[in-house]
């Protein structure tokens, strides 16, 4: 079936054959709490004959999302603790997140910001908040990189993106602007000449970090969208989440990483899933993750190796899940060192 419109409700899911009427009550409870959208491109990719289809599992709500584990938290990576002004997260000295928009083209069921994103949520920063965010960046000389995330910044119109880039172009100490997005995969036609032109600003190097988790997401259309970005001089890197039942297999991950490299997208981060509410069914253990990443090492070129990382709950930053930074302490628990040398328990008490 060719979907002609985005799926935005349980009724739409039932109509598209992605849920049954018997699922309705549980899924209504899920979508009352967490946003749902599947683009036509994603809906078309789903294999309805496979009850564990890795595309469906990423985007179709599941009653398991109603089960919240005690260690899960609304703000799993501690954005709020490091937010000096609305829309800015300043966790590390040389870079900030700029969360200009809290809308996404699709809503991933494992999203680490699932309590913050969605059409009913915080929307787009208004003009005054944007100005305050740019003032903050401009007054902090140490900020070398601005990372637009959210939400997905590429849902913004070229006009809005141009305004953002124009404001950043006026801040001389900012050298790098990075966009984190799913758009090239879930809505590839949006990556057109107008949008690409809007991402550029004189004196800034622009990176696009593409979020994809399964090799099937890299359709011909998605590959063409990446090619348009790279041909325009934009550097692309990848980010993926290691997800139980979706890509927790070295062969699948190898195919994904090779597909990134073949499309001039350098593998960057492989995230251990965060402790977002109702996402326990996606989470594997650190030990399982380490085993998968070790297997990957022997299988594929060094060019294809992502860095396996854990965002330390509470906002203490990222830790590479290897060597001395993440040490088993027994009973499935770990001691994790942050970049300042602080020690944290994982999972948190
Ligand atoms: S695109 Fe990113 S921010 Fe949006 S739902 Fe998916 S993981 Fe969350």
Structural class: alpha/beta
Q: In one word, what is the shape?
A: globular
Helicity range: 25-40%
The CATH topology of the largest domain is what?
TIM Barrel
Total strands: the figure is: 12
Count the domains. 2
- How large a portion of the residues is in β-strands, by DSSP E? 15-25%
What does this structure look like?
The structure is a single chain. Helices cover 29% and strands 19% of the residues. It is of the alpha/beta class and 349 residues long. The strands form 2 sheets. The protein has a 9-stranded mixed sheet. Strands 10-11-12 form a 3-stranded antiparallel sheet, with no helix packed on it. Strand 3 (145-150), helix 6 and strand 4 form a beta-alpha-beta unit.
Question: What are the salient characteristics of this protein?
Answer:
12 strands, TIM Barrel, 2 domains, 9-stranded mixed sheet, binds iron/sulfur cluster, globular, 11 helices, alpha/beta, 349 residues
């Amino acid at each position: 079936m060719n979907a002609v419109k985005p799926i935005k409700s349980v009724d739409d899911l039932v109509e598209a054959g992605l849920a049954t009427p018997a699922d309705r009550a549980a899924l209504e409870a899920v979508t009352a709490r967490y946003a749902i959208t599947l683009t036509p491109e994603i809906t078309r990719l789903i294999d309805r004959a496979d009850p564990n289809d890795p595309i469906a599992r990423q985007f179709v709500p599941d009653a398991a999302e109603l089960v919240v584990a005690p260690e899960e938290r609304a703000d799993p990576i501690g954005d709020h603790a490091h937010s000096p002004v609305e829309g800015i997260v300043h966790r590390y000295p040389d870079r900030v997140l700029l969360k200009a928009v809290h809308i996404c083209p699709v809503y991933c069921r494992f999203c680490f910001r699932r309590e913050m994103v969605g059409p009913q949520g915080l929307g787009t920063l208004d003009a005054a908040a944007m100005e305050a965010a740019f003032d903050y960046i401009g007054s902090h000389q140490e900020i070398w990189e601005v990372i637009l995330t959210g939400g997905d910044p590429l849902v913004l119109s070229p006009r809005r993106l141009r305004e953002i880039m124009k404001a950043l172009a006026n801040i001389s100490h900012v050298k790098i602007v990075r966009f984190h997005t799913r758009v090239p995969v879930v809505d590839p036609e949006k990556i057109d000449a107008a949008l690409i032109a809007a991402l550029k600003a004189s004196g800034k190097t622009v990176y696009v970090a593409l979020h994809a988790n399964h090799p099937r997401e890299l359709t011909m259309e998605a590959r063409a969208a990446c090619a348009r970005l790279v041909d325009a001089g934009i550097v692309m890197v990848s980010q993926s989440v290691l997800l139980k039942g979706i890509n927790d297999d070295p062969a699948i991950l190898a195919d994904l990483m090779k597909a990134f490299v073949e499309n001039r997208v350098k593998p960057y981060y492989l995230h251990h899933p965060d402790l977002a509410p109702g996402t326990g069914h996606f989470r594997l253990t650190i030990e399982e993750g380490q085993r998968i990443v070790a297997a990957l090492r022997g299988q594929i070129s060094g060019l294809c190796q992502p860095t396996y990382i854990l965002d330390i709950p509470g906002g203490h930053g990222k830790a590479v899940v290897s060597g001395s930074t993440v040490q088993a302490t027994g009973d499935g628990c770990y001691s994790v060192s942050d970049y300042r040398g602080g020690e944290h328990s994982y999972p948190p008490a």
